Every structure is written in structure tokens, then in C-alpha cells.
Amino acid sequence: xxxxxxxxxxxxxxxxxxxxxxxxxxxxxxxxxxxxxxxxxxxxxxxxxxxxxxxxxxxxxxxxxxxxxxxxxxxxxxxxxxxxxxxxxxxxxxxxxxxxxxxxxxxxxxxxxxxxxxxxxxxxxxxxxxxxxxxxxxxxxxxxxxxxxxxxxxxxxxxxxxxxxxxxxxxxxxxxxxxxxxxxxxxxxxxxxxxxxxxxxxxxxxxxxxxxxxxxxxx
Length: 219
Known about the structure:
It is a single chain. By secondary structure, this protein is of the alpha/beta class. Helix content is 51%, strand content 14%. The protein has a 6-stranded parallel β-sheet, with helices on both faces. It is built from 10 helices and 6 strands; from the N terminus they run E-H-E-H-E-H-E-H-E-H-E-H-H-H-H-H.
């Protein structure tokens, strides 16, 4: 039986390379491609693949938020995160979001294939040098920590947080999400309040530290 796959990456060349690599495996079939995070969620809901391979940094919403939404809406789809970041912050966030596998972009093609196979079976896979320490750290952190303010945000508020952090205006956000400008601004005000942020600069600093936009999430 063929394993169906959707590829999500905002670089055409990367998606083409991944498709070529994966389709050399006789039992893999790429059934769709997405160029941004919001499109990845929509396409996954529509096509319901066995596996979604998602870059950690994309336009719209990043791969970690994609994994969270897919895990919540279409839990039977296994998410494989592709990332250049090997530090604990991103790995833990990926596991928390429900991703089955976390593969470093420097990994070999064999490791990606293995990750897809393991994820399709519902198993967890972390590419070397990542090990089960990340899983244990995640479990311990989850058990010992209080509720993260980010977890209090609604899905829409998270989407707007990601878009604002990437520099989109309220008018642009309303167009992207098919909501009114006033609704977008209300969601923005609500998420700022929930996160204890007062200015756009504070929001950008938070987004960097959270790994929503590149440059944060140091180990």
C-alpha cells in the first residue's frame, strides 16, 4: 500500500527536490504541495495524506503551528518537521505540537525516508544527533510546568500573531484569513492581552524568543 504525502515548503526548488527523492521509493506518493503554512493546513484537511512533511519556517504560520493545527483537526495525519535547528527549544515545541518526526536538513536522504516510514506507522523519529533525551525532557517539562500563555491563544489568535510578526498589516491579514479588518484587530488586541504584551516591539521580541520568526529559540 502506498504512503501518501504532502510537501510544505516555501521554496519551489526544495519541494521539487523532496518530491524527486521521495518518489524514487516505490511505496511513496506525493499527492500535494503547499508553499505556506496556512495553505499546508487547508490542503492537508482536503486531501488527508498519511504524512505531511513541513519545513519549520514558512510564510503565514510556521511549521510548528501547522503541526499543532493538523494534530488537532486531522489527528490521523502524521507530521514530519524539517528543520535546520538542532537545539532543544525547537525539538520540544515540535513534540508538543504533535509532530511524529523531527529531521534536520543536514540529514541524509535515507534518514528522511526512514522518518517518513516511522511517522506513517505512528512512531516517533528524531534524526541524529537528536536522541530520546528530547522526549524525556519534553515529558518532564510538561509535567513540571504551568500552562504556557501561548497555549491560551485560540487558533485564529496564533495565526494573527504569526502574520503580525512577519510584518503583515491588519488589512493584509484580513485578506489572507478572509475576515474583516476590525475582527483582525480585535484578535490582535486579545492575543496581546493574553501574552502580556503592550507594543509591536514587544510582540516581535516574543516572536523571536518563541521561534515564530527566525533568530530565536536558542538552546
